[in-house]
Amino acid sequence: MAKDSEKKGNGTKIALIIAGIVIVALIAVVIVLLVRGNGAKETKRNVVVNQDNAEEIAQGLIDEPYIEPGYYNTNMSTTWHFSDGDAVSDDAYVRNDERNTHDVYFDVYLADDESTPILESPVLPRGSSLENISLDKPLDAGTYDCVMVYHLVDDNQSSVASLRVAFTIIIEQ
Q1: What is the DSSP letter of 132?
Q2: Which has the closest alpha carbon to 154: 125, 127, 122, 129?
Q3: How far apart, in whole angstroms, are the C-alpha atoms of residue 69 and residue 48?
Q4: What is the rounded CA–CA span in Å between residue 129 and residue 66?
Q5: The model's pTM
Q6: CA 1 to CA 63: how far, in whole Å?
Q7: How far apart are CA 170 and CA 173, in angstroms?
Q8: In the chain, how long is the greatest CA-to-CA distance?
Q9: Domain residue ranges in the chain
Q10: Which of 16, 61, 133, 169 would bridge with 144, disulfide CB 3.0–4.6 Å?
Q11: What is the tens place of the pLDDT at every residue in 55-99?
């Protein structure tokens, strides 16, 4: 009988040790999750700048990585008229506004076939425009729903973003 109670006592001790280890492990996991913030991002609030913190705030702004704006203001005619499929349009123009942040080039596609461009532009630096536009691929007479895909490029002319704009091309003859 003494051996049975000894075994029960050892079994209880082992169970208590295992339970203690499990509790310590759970506490460690909770502490790690609390310290790491569980992946939540810190929300920044505006800070009032005064004489006491001006240098600290300025250094913080200098140390923050620069995120280049990716907006683009379109400035173009939305209906292009051509006297025939090979003609130069009198009213087609595209301007890259000087307030935009990137140079651009654009491709024009028929809305129902975006596999082959009917016009590929040169790169338009900020503040420049393209007028007297003719199509690279002549179209038959008719009205065409088209899509212009602007490609915003960096200083190395690598694409950083694109923008799609619907417009109409009318071929008179």
Answers
A1: S
A2: 125
A3: 25
A4: 29
A5: 0.60
A6: 74
A7: 9
A8: 111
A9: 1-41, 74-171
A10: 169
A11: 887 777 667 544 355 567 889 999 999 999 999 999 999 999 888
